[in-house]
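Page 42, continued from yesterday. The earlier attempt failed because a stray header line got pasted into the input along with the sequence. Redoing it now with the clean sequence only.
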Amino acid sequence: MFFGNLFRDLNSGFVEPVIDYSTLQHPGLELAKFAQENKVITTSKLQQPEEDEDIVLNVATFAGGCFWGLELAYQRCPGVTHTTVGYTQGREEYPTYSQVCTEATGHTEAVCVYYNPNECSYDDLLDVFFSRVNPLTVNGQGNDYGKQYRTGVYYHTPEQETIARARFEVEQQKYTKKPIATELRASMPFWPAERHHQKYLSKGGPGRVAQSAEKGCMDTIRCYG
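This time it went through. Structure tokens are written below.
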């Protein structure tokens, strides 16, 4: 059960506006509706107007430091149909970027990934994740530090949990002196981030130079320039 948003409950002065999820591209609004109902989505449908049946998509969530770069990595992954950046693993409802950055909400920046299991496996998504993060770093990646930048694999189904636990054992064998700091936990409701954070790097990013989201692209991902 959520505790509400203490920032709004206790603040008698300026009240930060709630994110308008209706302005987000799919699947932002769908994810927000699930979060508002305190639910975690496991599958979604990709409509095919010219086909008899829709494609059933699986859903996965990963946290790898700043969500901009990780989202672009998954945008490039063949079989991934949709990505949304946002906040998960916290108890506050309707979290905003500035609130999450205080480290008081408990959330971490994350990417929710919709993928076609006929074209992309959960193992493939884990390959992308571990190619992007240093799993030994506690509460941060690169130059970004804080609890909101902690890394994590948050499974949506028992099948994902089984695959992820096996993969974590393999990854831990690479490091004999330190335990992996990356969280491995059941996914909590995912709250989409503000619209300007969505697809941030492929839309131009801080340098206003768009980076390719083409499937299979291997260009270096630049988060800050």
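Notes: The radius of gyration is 17 Å.
Reminder to self: strip header lines before submitting.
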